Amino acid sequence: MSENTLQQALQMVTGEDDGRVCKDIPEDACRHQPKNFFTHIISLSMTKLADGLIDPKLVLSWLLATLSVPSALIGLLVPIRESGALLPQLFTAAGLRALPQRKWAWAIGSAVQGVSAIAIGFSALCLEGQLAGWAILSALTVLAIARSVCSVTYKDVLGKTVSKSKRGTATGLASSLSAGFVILFGILLISGIIEKMTLITFALFAAGVLWLVASGLFQTLEEEPGATEGGGNSISVFLDNFSLLKKDRQLQLFILVRGLLISTALAPPFMVSLASAGDGTEAAFGGLGYLVVASALASLLSSYVWGRLADRSSRKVLMLSGGAGAIALVLTVALQFLGLLSSGWALPLVIFGLMIAYQGVRLGRSTHLVDMADKDSRAAYTALSNTIIGGLLVLGAVFSLIDAVFGTVSVIVIMAVMAVLACVFARGLDEVQSDA
Predict the structure, then answer these.
(1) Is residue 359 part of a domain?
(2) Apex 49 CA angle, 47 and 55, nearest 5
(3) How many separate domains does the chain show?
(4) CA–CA dist 269, 204 (Å, integer)
(5) How far is Cα of residue 231 from the mean position of the Cα atoms in its chain?
(6) Within a domain: residue 251?
(7) Which domain holds residue 298?
(8) CA separation for the pair 62, 65 (Å, rounded)
(9) What is the CA angle 75-81-87, rounded to 5?
(10) Which of 26, 68, 158, 229 has its CA 20 to 30 A from that of 382?
(11) In whole angstroms, what is the distance from residue 81 CA to residue 143 CA?
(12) What is the CATH number for 164?
């Protein structure tokens, strides 16, 4: 595709008269921005689609249940996936910081995720019971660690190759594109045209291929070399980075808000559990296709909008998404008390609402962090924030204890309160797009 065509497409997507206007990237990077913008969209949409095809909260949970994996192992899926993608950054960030071009690290991480997804597919084909559980969890652990490499490098690459006021649009459009294909996957699950186990196994292999292709495409980005300071000992670098937290009140506030908003990520399994209480695993995941469609439809309808809003005010996006998450969680409890949550329409409805909030959280926090930091501190801010949130996600296992002692409703109420508090604290964040 010619440079002029890409330039016109960029102007059409962003709604700006001059797609070459660059707020905070050098002129050399600005020249390549149209190509880089669409490379980000295509690569990220592939990886987000792959994420949707192996979603641990829904798809892998159903898969392990079908393979007769013990429930104790099934309960490890989300903690491994979420915290495993964040905590390793304590050890990887410093080494990655030494790379002047970090697109290569992202590409390797994407490729490893692809191989891991294929390994999960082979495990589903060849194993069952506890052995299948341990094999899939092991592959998921490798996938999560590889994802941590992608996570700590992506925002930095995005910040160097796409200008402020366009970053949220790029990530939001990628989320919407990928969600459209995940909806087709969910419709196939609902239709029964293809046997469910066969379809999910195929989806695992397809996810692997998507990650591998995205790895190759991402390597074509035109990335300018960046700062390499901070590439020393991982622990000492983390302690140095931690000092940033003492000096920067806005960073403190951002991490507090992001920490409270983990409720939107942790809530879905508890919502499914509440809806199917007493009915067993099959009831919990019998409507898997409807839940997949609800989750993906929320992403499709909201991601681009959230992304555009984030380019104007990521602070307001975090406030709105916190409020939306609280509403979805309170509605879940209300429907349970009314005896309606187990109805066929109710759980997909509240999952849809929560996933709209979750997409806002993801796009709002990503855009806010990239725009809040400068090119020299962006990688350090990302690694520090992700490591702290990873630790909080591990501590999130306490919700299982609260569930066992006080019941699932109590867990969801606490998560709703967390979302409300996030909305309140987000009011104190700076409007980091105000100088765009």
Answers:
(1) yes
(2) 100
(3) 1
(4) 21
(5) 26
(6) yes
(7) 25-426
(8) 5
(9) 120
(10) 26
(11) 8
(12) 1.20.1250.20
CA distances from 55 to 37, 185, 206, 430 (A): 26, 12, 13, 33
- What is this structure's pTM? 0.75
CB 177 within 8 A of CB 307: no
The letter for the amino acid at 417 is V
Which residue in 109, 192, 121, 204 sits closest to 150, CA to CA?
109
* Distances, alpha carbon 283 to alpha carbons 72, 276, 287, 347, in Å: 18, 6, 8, 12
Ordered alpha helix ranges (H), 279-345: 280-285, 288-337
Question: What distance in Å separates the CA atoms of residue 304 and residue 211, rounded to the nearest whole number?
Answer: 22
Residues ≥6 apart with Cβ < 8 Å to 338: none
Picking from 154, 150, 163, 177, the residue whose alpha carbon sits closest to that of residue 48 is 177
Is residue 2 in a domain? no
- The pLDDT tens digits of the residues spanning 14-50 come to 556 554 456 666 666 677 778 888 888 999 999 999 9
DSSP annotation of 262: T
Q: Is 69 helix (H, G, I), strand (E, B) or coil?
A: coil
- The one-letter code for the residue type at 206 is A
User: In the numeric block, which tokens belong to residue 59?
Assistant: 């798809």
- Domain assignment present for 5: no
